[in-house]
Write a structure and sequence with these properties.
By secondary structure, the chain is α+β, with helices and mostly antiparallel strands. It has a single domain, classed as Glutamine Phosphoribosylpyrophosphate, subunit 1, domain 1. The chain contains 4 helices and 17 strands. The strands form 3 sheets. The chain has a 7-stranded antiparallel β-sheet with strand order 4-3-5-2-13-10-14, covered by helices on one side. A hairpin with a 2-residue loop joins strand 16 and strand 17. Helix 3 crosses helix 4. It is globular, with a radius of gyration of 18 Å.
Length: 279
């Protein structure tokens, strides 16, 4: 379990203030996200200003489990419960909101979930889009008022038109996501994380980082609270995972994702066009 450490809070790395923040996990084996969540959810009204709601989607054996709350995550009893009771999953997406479009309601909280090709997809977005420059979806209709959900529906409308009712091979899907996302990103900032429970897809316009955790595991310290963990004590040699976040959550070696294209994660690895990267 994470342990408290005596570190001067003022010495911690500053968190850059931007609209909303994203968190994602892709793991080779079902894993817990509690440590990363402990720091991430504090940014919803305690260490940062993203206090207009939050949500988390994680894939379990029976499908996608979604929890959303319009209250600030740093003070939400639901968020506290989720941190203690979140089960193991291979793919997780979480979001803390700073409202720019749409009221502060549960309907406008990310992640959003839609069904396509017999799969449950979840999506969360960071940024601001000029909706006057976007079209209107036909098949996938938003329930709320956010530019984020509108973009998600437009993205899936375009995928459905391109591939029909049959899911394409992953290389074709990744290429299509990159092309469609570029069109949406022309209307503003379009950082997002997307998953179908098998893989995790991420698109960076401005800020989105990742860190790989694999053997030999080291120690990590959260930037938003006095908490650290020794991953070697809680993982097996064949465990591996990827954590994505808008801004780094720990003192580990986080790397920025490439701008303007979709990155794919499966089995706790970042995939390139030719296959898994050797890391």
């Amino acid at each position: 379990m994470p342990q408290n450490i005596g570190v001067n809070v003022s010495a911690r790395r500053a968190v850059v203030r931007i609209m909303c923040q994203l968190l994602g996990m892709n793991s080779l084996k079902p894993a817990e996200l509690g440590f990363s969540l402990a720091g991430f959810l504090r940014r919803g009204g305690e260490t940062d200003e993203h206090a207009d709601g939050w949500g988390i989607a994680l894939y379990e054996e029976l499908g996608c489990k979604l929890v959303i709350d319009e209250r600030a995550s740093a003070s939400s009893p639901v968020a506290e419960w989720v941190q203690r009771n979140t089960g193991r999953s291979r793919n997780v997406i979480a979001h803390i909101r700073k409202a720019t479009q749409g009221e502060v309601t549960a309907t406008n909280c990310h992640p959003f979930v839609r069904h396509l090709w017999g799969q449950e997809w979840c999506f969360a977005h960071n940024g601001n889009l000029d909706t006057s420059k976007l079209g209107r979806p036909e098949k996938f209709i938003p329930c709320g008022q956010t530019d984020s959900e509108l973009a998600f529906c437009l993205l899936f409308d375009a995928l459905l038109k391109r591939f029909g009712e049959q899911a394409p091979p992953e290389p074709l899907l990744r290429a299509a996501l990159s092309e469609i996302s570029a069109g949406i990103a022309a209307a503003g900032t379009f950082n997002y994380v997307l998953s179908n429970g098998d893989a995790l897809f991420a698109h960076r316009s401005t800020e989105l980082h990742y860190v790989e955790r694999a053997w030999p595991f080291g120690r990590a310290q959260l930037l938003d609270c006095l908490c650290e963990i020794d991953f070697a004590r809680h993982n097996q040699p064949d465990d591996r995972m990827i954590i994505l976040a808008t801004q780094p959550l720990t003192n580990e070696d986080w790397q920025p994702l490439p701008i303007g294209r979709v990155s794919t994660f499966r089995g706790g690895r970042l995939l390139c066009d030719e296959g898994p990267e050797a890391r």
